[in-house]
UniProtKB/TrEMBL annotation:
Superkingdom assignment: Bacteria
Lipid bilayer topology: Multi-pass membrane protein
Residue ranges of the TM segments: 27-47, 292-314, 335-362, 374-397
Subcellular location per the Swiss-Prot or TrEMBL entry: Cell membrane
Entry's family note: Belongs to the ABC-4 integral membrane protein family.
InterPro entries: ABC3_permease_C, MacB_PCD, Macrolide_Exporter_MacB
Ranges of residues in domain ABC3 transporter permease C-terminal: 294-408
Name of this chain's protein: ABC transporter permease
Keywords: Cell membrane, Membrane, Transmembrane, Transmembrane helix
Domain MacB-like periplasmic core: 26-254
Amino acid sequence: MLVYLRLLKESFGFALNALRNNKLRTLLSLLGVTIGIFSIIAVLAAVDSLDRKIKKDLSSLDKNTIYLMRFSFGPSEIPQWKREQFPNVKYDEYEYLKSSLNDLNQMAFQFFVNRETIKYQSATVSDINVVPVSHEFIEIEGLEFDEGRFYNESESNSGSAVIVLGNEIASGLFEGASPIGKNVRLYGQRFTVIGVLKKQGAGIFGDSNDTSVFIPVNFLRRMYGDNNDALTPVILIKPEKGVDMDAFKAELTQKLRNYRGMKTDEIDNFFINVLSGFTDLIDGIVGQMNVVGWIISGFSLLVGGFGIANIMFVSVKERTNLIGIQKSLGAKNRFILFQFLFEAVILSVIGGVVGLFLVWIISIVLSKAMDFEFVLSMGNVILGTSLAAIIGLISGIMPAITASKLDPVEAIRTGM
């Protein structure tokens, strides 16, 4: 065991020697490994960070939450021209389903609308996300407040001119002062502020509750009616925990079909989008991004492997005389083989560590420059180091075998 530790120490010395004595040649040869490890770990770290952010943003929602609407979250076998003929869900359908569905926890009615501008006296915040939704939304999404409250059932049903502000909206309009009870203008109307949400942080899809405002959905229904093209309605459904989702969706489908008076041979003219299906779709996309990253980075690693092999073949040639002397003094083939293998692995790991260091630096810069946590996990560090070691092992095997099979007399003569 001590012999191999000494061998490892000598190999490390030879590797550092190669870097010290042939700086340019060695650095250029290691560049392929550095770029390859950098590319793979950068892609994996970016995808992991993205995946973590998405799951964090969706963590407040139950994965069984259903979005009932005329559009599908994912690909559909139904032709687009046919999907475009589907009717929007209606408020009366929401009321009917809410009163008749079994195993229902909460149900809310919401409009997807265009972005707007909100004003308070001379202060203005543009491009805000408006969320017109019924009062049950707070139970579905689990909103938390800095101050104030969400609107109640009475205010929701009557379409009262009350509003809940996201944290950044409140800061932009009131600059630290309490907005509760103040009047803001939206859609040309006055709304009384009744609540301010806790700071959430940027959402992965561009929006977050920080840049959103919430108003009773019936306020917009009273202003624009139910058939306005600028309003896209959706029914949010949260089943009871532990419910059989297939049975729940079957009941939901049947009740809505019956309410719409659809015939048996007609296809469903609505989509039941389950949030868990959406997360599965995201997981699939994340997996594909990882595969693409591996394929692209694989070419750099291939070039890096050739670079390491080149260094080792040159090293064998330069140390032929030394190899001959070692063998003449009793060094076994295995000793010479491991000596060069260790050296190849050490050189490759040095290149890999440089690549990991670059990823770490970039992750810090991006995390500070953007409102996004770019994380280089310990798992990716171990993966990058292991991958570099494997590349060194594979690249160094042929030069090491060549060195180990040298005849000692010939080696000494060749090296003289």
